[in-house]
């Protein structure tokens, strides 16, 4: 009996202890998170230093730090443990004084949060025997969880921001947070209730009843203009880019891009650079005439230019296909603004230009400018539309060398800008057309690049007519009487079947001859480019022979077709010179050979008949 | 004892936000489940105006950081898959040691599934590289969009935290008794899985069952 009474007293005592500690702890949590005076900011250091927590602080496994003395005396506020504990968090704001007299400022108090912590006593009829210790442990465990969630919730509600601002702000804020603890409170007005939201924590059941916490809080504190947006201290931006005003030599990436855009408004210039480039150097680079074409973003980004513009010419730029572009020397006259129109368009897309040779030359020009500052020499390139990707591996060594004029006439042609493009144009026309057209229909394909042979003609330049298949093109040699090959190509290992014999070409159509010779002249210049690196040129030739298409009977239609094909394939694909051979092509070629043979036979028969006569 | 499962709301995050968001969620859950003596520590997120609470436990922080690192690696390796993190608490029940097995059984009593939908990086970069005109305008639009998205993510993250608190409050009965330890009181494990992993595994298993693949025997 006595034991039971003592037990019940003990239990009641234990329960009271738990309840009082629960109320204290929750009060501590609430005020610690809302009222700066209760929670001085430096108090956090005590916890972080690993100081031994007081025994009283260890309740509910939550160490909060020293409880203010005022809170210890709960009985001062809370006479009856069974009464609810109502904690009002009050926002105190100074009311602007519109009156002129210097009366003390009025203060407006608004309850922004109301916490109700209570134990709802439920009289139960169930026997209190049994394992109460286990029950208490369970209850205690659940109270721990409850208080943890209370602690978290304090930081999620809107009032937390106001509290943090109050704590962190060095200067005085125009508001303050106060609190009131009581066991009863005046209910909210209707208008106030509309602005408030309620959240009830799940109650923790105990043997005698249940512990509960609930909160009514203001959803939004924007009405109070607390300026809680800049809550966290400003951070130093380590990689801050200064404005152009402060550091004119250093530009924003956007500024650089803007410069680029304005410099090339009509070009649709792609300012894709994410690098912050100096606008000055960029701008100055733009107006530096010779380097203008380099604006062409071969890789689509100004820095490529920049690196070259600053005479960092060690690395050759990459074309749009990411391949290294050899630098070709181009004629001085190309330095002018002729290439402005093409500077921003890819150098190897013939579709965008009516004059592909110029286009290509423009691209070459860019590349060469990027590489060297010496005066460029014209390299009218017959490999129209051919991607430099193709050229580069073979001619990279030759890139540094200009194309010396093979003869005085060559020099003349080199220096004439107008002729070369036209020459190249006609060459383009002919590169796919057979020389057979010039030579009474004999199909001949040529690549217009490297040749070995004697320089024969007064034009003395052309050396670039070659057979694609490598088979002897006698007809061509007939037609190429006016074709001359540079002496320098003699040492080429490759034995060219088109070594010119001095064959009478009187039966050739003169106009076509002229056209051919012009193109051949142009081509010879190209060939002379290659002479400097024989091995590379040989490799190029071999490749050309393997891939060059045969010439066609109808040059005009073929050239147009080849143009279309070239356009269709784009800059990176094979040029018109190197159309894939099909069986039909081979058959046509065979037919052409047959015709040639017959023609020769008939001629020889005629000559024999003449002699006899 | 039953296993309570909580599927947290899915969040759309960008790569650089993963660490903060994941850290916030994991620490919040653990704070509510570390029922040993803890010293709570407030942590302010850099990217969002959210403060969460974590246990001031250096070892726990280190473990969580490691796991987040693993998650990020997983996301980087499998960019097109949804990667999920599962934080599960278990009790250790040691089985009777037999001749063959001496296993320690884990009884999971709670599982939290954190679903992050990581936005693909190329999206961000492609926006930068497509410059066909002045950069300023597209940049501004992108910034606005980013602000909107950031605000939405902040609201969603707040919702997730509320969701955690609600779950923690509602389900208390399944929590095992607290051992007399400090800090994290219950053993836990964090597992990372990609969305198609389980599907792939199941497919493989089904295929093997059907075909009777010899590897099954191994």
Automatic annotation (TrEMBL), chain A:
| Compositionally biased spans, kind Polar residues | 304-318, 364-377
Q: Name one GO biological process term.
A: piecemeal microautophagy of the nucleus
The Autophagy-related protein 13 N-terminal domain sits at 20-220
Ranges for the region named Disordered are 266-327, 341-426, 438-470
Keywords of the record, alphabetical order, are: Autophagy
Which residue windows does the record flag with biased composition (Pro residues)? 347-357
Q: Has keyword Zinc?
A: no
> Which InterPro entries has this protein been placed in?
ATG13, Atg13_N, HORMA_dom_sf
The record ties this protein, via Pfam families, to:
ATG13 (PF10033)
GO CC terms in record: Atg1/ULK1 kinase complex; cytosol; phagophore assembly site
By what name is this protein known? Answer: Autophagy-related protein 13 N-terminal domain-containing protein
TrEMBL record, chain B:
Q: Which Pfam families match?
A: ATG101 (PF07855)
- Keywords, sorted A to Z: Autophagy
Q: Does the keyword Ribosomal protein apply?
A: no
Query: What are the GO cellular component annotations?
Result: Atg1/ULK1 kinase complex; phagophore assembly site
What InterPro entries does the record point to? Answer: ATG101
Which top-level group of life is the source organism from?
A: Eukaryota
Q: State the Gene Ontology BP annotations.
A: autophagosome assembly
Annotated GO MF terms: protein kinase binding
Q: Which family does it belong to?
A: Belongs to the ATG101 family.
Q: Name it.
A: Autophagy-related protein 101
Q: Which organism is it from?
A: Daucus carota subsp. sativus
User: Top-down, what is the taxonomic lineage of the species of origin?
Assistant: Eukaryota, Viridiplantae, Streptophyta, Embryophyta, Tracheophyta
């Amino acid at each position: 009996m006595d034991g039971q009474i003592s037990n019940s007293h003990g239990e009641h005592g234990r329960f009271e202890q738990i309840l009082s500690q629960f109320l204290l702890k929750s009060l501590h949590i609430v005020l610690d998170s809302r009222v700066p005076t209760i929670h001085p900011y430096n108090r956090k250091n005590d916890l972080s230093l690993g100081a031994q927590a007081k025994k009283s602080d260890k309740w509910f496994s939550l160490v909060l730090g020293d409880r203010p003395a005022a809170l210890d005396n709960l009985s001062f506020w809370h006479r009856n443990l069974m009464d609810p504990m109502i904690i009002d968090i009050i926002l105190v704001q100074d009311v602007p004084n519109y009156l002129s007299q210097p009366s003390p400022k009025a203060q407006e108090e608004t309850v922004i949060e109301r916490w109700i912590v209570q134990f709802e006593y439920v009289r139960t009829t169930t026997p209190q025997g049994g394992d109460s210790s286990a029950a208490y442990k369970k209850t205690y465990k659940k109270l721990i969880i409850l208080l943890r969630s209370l602690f978290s919730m304090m930081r999620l509600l809107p009032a937390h921001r106001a509290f943090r601002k109050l704590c962190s702000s060095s200067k005085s804020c125009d508001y303050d947070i106060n609190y009131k603890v009581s066991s009863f409170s005046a209910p909210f007005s209707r208008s106030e209730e509309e602005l408030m939201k309620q959240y009830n924590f799940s109650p923790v059941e105990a043997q005698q009843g249940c512990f509960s916490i609930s909160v009514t809080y203001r959803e939004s504190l924007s009405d109070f203009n607390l300026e809680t947006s800049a809550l966290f201290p400003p951070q130093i931006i380590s990689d801050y880019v200064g404005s152009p005003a402060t550091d004119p030599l250093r530009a924003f990436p956007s500024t650089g891009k803007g410069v680029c855009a304005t410099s090339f408004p009509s070009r649709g210039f792609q300012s894709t650079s994410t690098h912050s480039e100096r606008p000055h150097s960029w701008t100055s680079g733009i107006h530096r005439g010779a380097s203008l074409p380099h604006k062409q973003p071969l890789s689509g980004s100004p820095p490529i230019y920049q690196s070259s513009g600053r005479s960092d010419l060690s690395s050759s730029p990459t074309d749009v296909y990411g391949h290294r572009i050899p630098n070709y020397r181009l004629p001085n006259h190309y330095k002018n603004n002729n290439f402005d129109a093409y500077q921003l368009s890819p150098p190897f897309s013939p579709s965008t230009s009516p004059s592909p040779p110029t286009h290509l030359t423009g691209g070459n020009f860019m590349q060469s400018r990027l590489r060297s500052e010496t005066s460029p020499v014209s390299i009218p390139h017959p490999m129209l539309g051919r991607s430099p990707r193709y050229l580069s591996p073979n001619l990279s060594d030759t890139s540094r060398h200009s194309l010396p004029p093979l003869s005085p006439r060559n020099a003349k042609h080199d220096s004439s800008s107008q002729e070369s493009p036209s020459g190249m144009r006609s060459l383009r026309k002919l590169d796919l057309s057979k020389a057979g057209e010039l030579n009474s229909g004999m199909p001949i394909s040529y690549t217009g690049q490297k040749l070995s042979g004697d320089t024969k003609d007064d034009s003395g330049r052309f050396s670039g007519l070659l057979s694609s298949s490598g088979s002897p093109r006698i007809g061509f040699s007939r037609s190429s009487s006016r074709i001359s090959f540079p002496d320098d190509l003699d040492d080429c290992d490759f034995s060219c079947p088109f070594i010119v014999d001095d064959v009478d070409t009187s039966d050739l159509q003169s106009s076509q001859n002229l056209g051919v010779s012009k193109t051949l002249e142009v081509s010879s210049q190209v060939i002379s480019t290659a002479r400097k690196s024989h091995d590379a040129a040989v490799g190029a030739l071999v490749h050309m022979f393997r891939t060059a298409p045969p010439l066609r009977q109808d040059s005009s239609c073929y050239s147009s077709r080849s143009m279309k094909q070239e356009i269709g394939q784009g800059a990176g694909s094979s040029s018109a010179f190197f159309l894939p051979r099909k069986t039909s092509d081979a058959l046509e070629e065979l037919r052409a050979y047959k015709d040639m043979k017959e023609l020769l036979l008939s001629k020889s028969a005629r000559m024999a008949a003449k002699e006899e006569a | 004892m039953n296993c309570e499962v909580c599927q947290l709301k899915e969040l759309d995050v960008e790569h650089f936000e993963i660490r903060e968001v994941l850290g916030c969620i994991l620490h919040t859950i653990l704070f509510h489940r570390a029922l040993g003596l803890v010293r709570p520590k407030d942590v302010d997120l850099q990217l969002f105006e959210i403060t969460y609470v974590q246990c001031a436990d250096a070892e726990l922080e280190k473990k969580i950081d490691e796991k987040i690192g693993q998650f990020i690696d997983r996301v980087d390796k499998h960019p097109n898959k949804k990667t999920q993190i599962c934080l599960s608490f278990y009790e250790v029940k040691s089985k009777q040691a037999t001749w063959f097995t001496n296993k320690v059984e884990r009884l999971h009593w709670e599982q939290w599934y954190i679903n992050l939908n990581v936005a693909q990086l190329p999206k961000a970069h492609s926006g930068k590289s497509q410059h066909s005109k002045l950069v300023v305008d597209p940049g501004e639009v992108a910034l606005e969009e980013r602000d909107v998205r950031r605000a939405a993510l902040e609201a969603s993250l707040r919702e997730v935290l509320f969701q955690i608190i609600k779950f923690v409050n509602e389900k208390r009965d399944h929590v095992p008794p607290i051992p007399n330890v400090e800090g994290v009181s219950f053993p836990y494990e964090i597992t990372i899985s990609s969305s198609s992993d389980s599907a792939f595994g199941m497919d493989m298993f089904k295929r093997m069952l059907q075909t009777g693949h010899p590897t099954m025997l191994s």
